[in-house]
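ingest -> validate -> predict -> emit
validate: passed (alphabet ok, no gaps, 295 aa)
predict: started
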Amino acid sequence: MAKVFMGVVAAAASLLVARGATILDGVDAREYRDLADRFPSVGTVTGPGLQGSGVLIGGRWVLTAGHIATGKSGSGTFTIGGSSYLVAAATTHPELDFPSHDLGLLLLQTAVGHVPAASMYRFPAAVDVIDLEGTWVGTGFTGTGSTGSRLPLERRAFTNVIDAFGDHPDYENLPANSMVADFDSGSATDNAPASSPLPTALEGNVAPGDSGGGVFVMVDGEYRLVGINSYAGTLDRLPQGTDSRYGSLSGAAALDFFHGWIEEVSGITPVPEPSSAVLLLTAAGLAARRRRDSP
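emit:
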């Protein structure tokens, strides 16, 4: 069974700007800070309610976690690239029931003109994101896999293989529309099901404040947005995995399940465009048919 911790990824109201993650012991934290600098579209969300992160996906539109968007209409602030923008309106997914359907959209009063927006990606099938290495970017506490999350605060990003969706048979209580990765140290004792125990070079886990940040994968040489940080968790059989230590889980809303809602609210579509995706799938199907029909 898996337990989910909302507070592990949502900073307390008094911690307005917190950017980080727990990281591998013995790896220079500067490498995690440098990695975060590659993702200028990720900023911080402050205001009434819980504080966290958000990802700019269009001039005035910010995608974030639903539990971060709550309460931000007319009084929240999105800070990115050294500038702050007031939130004109905040919308949460109509089926939000944390951690399920944990997505929100913020409409800013003015457009962000000096920072490039992130580009969402639509896979031919949602399952295609599994086993890809993602880069998880957001705001949160620091610390390592041994210490767990702790002060001070600093900007970090980390990498982790997307192991499974939340409805994997070895998990319980995790939403099927979320992607899950575990924090590996290289030891099988803290390895979650459906996962290799080998860590990536910059392995890590979400920590307090990371909610609403983005999960990116490399597609055709470009980073594309595929998830929004939502929760941290632990398995009952790995109690040492609490507080973002080794064995903890990072959970993110998998955007392939939500593109329709995002487009309905914001008008922003992922790449490739739906028509392009259909053409690609049709071409692939015709090619496969030709291969089957050839002598």
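The helical segments are 29-36, 66-69, 259-266, 274-293.
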